[in-house]
Amino acid sequence: MPEENIKIYTLKEIAEHSNSDSAWVLINEGVYDVTKFLDEHPGGPETLLDWAGKEATEAFEDVGHSIDARTLMEDYKIGELSEEDQKEKPKTNGNSSNCCWSPYFLLPLGVALTGVVLYKLYSHIYK
């Protein structure tokens, strides 16, 4: 639940801020105005501009930002995504089809673990 003094924005409003004059990103339902941070961003302004006006949670998380970066981003937070748009927004993270524990991942993992167990067993027997 957003705090009282936090402004609520829609996806449409966020999308209007997609250039170097006004660059907003949406990360974990928070809205961040990164316009003044463009030139300071370690990955360069292009990285942020690629996601300006868009949902950037997956891209942000994939990079593996540090705790310091996560703390710094709070200085740029200007609001939250509206509850209505939170329900409408397609989920890109946590989706079972994107999850690392899909059957396509489990089969090679099972084969690898079986190989390790067999190797340990045979190396112990034939010492």
Automatic annotation (TrEMBL):
Note the Pfam families from the entry: Cyt-b5 (PF00173)
- This protein's gene is called Cyb5a
Q: Which organism is it from?
A: Nephila pilipes
Protein's name in the database: Cytochrome b5
Question: Where does the UniProt entry say this protein principally localizes?
Answer: endoplasmic reticulum
Q: Does the keyword Transport apply?
A: yes
Q: Which SUPFAM superfamilies match?
A: Cytochrome b5-like heme/steroid binding domain
Localization, UniProt = Endoplasmic reticulum membrane; Microsome membrane
Q: Which stretches are transmembrane? A: 101-122
Q: What GO terms are given for molecular function?
A: heme binding; metal ion binding
Q: Which InterPro entries match?
A: Cyt_B5-like_heme/steroid-bd (IPR001199), Cyt_B5-like_heme/steroid_sf (IPR036400), Cyt_B5_heme-BS (IPR018506), Cytochrome_b5 (IPR050668)
Instruction: Give any Gene Ontology cellular component.
Output: endoplasmic reticulum membrane
